[in-house]
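From the methods appendix. Each design record in this collection lists the tokenized structure first, followed by the designed amino acid sequence. Records were kept in a plain field format so they could be parsed without special tools. The example shown here is representative of the layout used throughout.

RECORD:
FOLD TOKENS (130 positions):
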């Protein structure tokens, strides 16, 4: 597997993306990671679902979410502390690439979903994207 994670090579992982696999992975992430990682994944998901998002952005997002879902990635998820580092990198690369397509409405949807799962989540916990 290519060790380079960038927005340019994320589309090759899009074949691993499906809505069902995404939601299964998100449920596991909620238990395993903090709100920020889940928030970024949700922002990407809602950006992908937005009809106004350009196709080239959707390909990158599907690739990043596919990489997140993919069980055999560069750093296996079961490794403590390090297991999510490459997944986080894929999410961050995709967010930076598609940032202009992320609307306040998309951020609100992601924050509302987090609120349902985590209860009250402060914007400070969500990082600069909040």
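DESIGN:
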């Amino acid at each position: 597997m290519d060790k380079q994670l960038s927005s340019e090579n994320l589309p090759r992982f899009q074949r691993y993306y499906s809505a069902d696999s995404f939601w299964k992975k998100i449920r596991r992430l909620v238990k395993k990671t903090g709100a920020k990682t889940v928030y970024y994944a949700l922002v990407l998901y809602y950006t992908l679902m937005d009809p106004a998002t350009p196709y080239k952005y959707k390909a990158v997002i599907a690739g990043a979410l596919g990489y997140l879902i993919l069980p055999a990635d560069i750093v296996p998820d079961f490794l403590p502390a390090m297991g999510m580092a490459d997944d986080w990198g894929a999410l961050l690369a995709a967010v930076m690439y598609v940032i202009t397509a992320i609307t306040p409405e998309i951020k609100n949807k992601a924050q509302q979903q987090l609120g349902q799962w985590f209860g009250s989540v402060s914007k400070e916990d969500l990082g600069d994207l909040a």
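APPENDIX NOTE: The radius of gyration is 13 Å.
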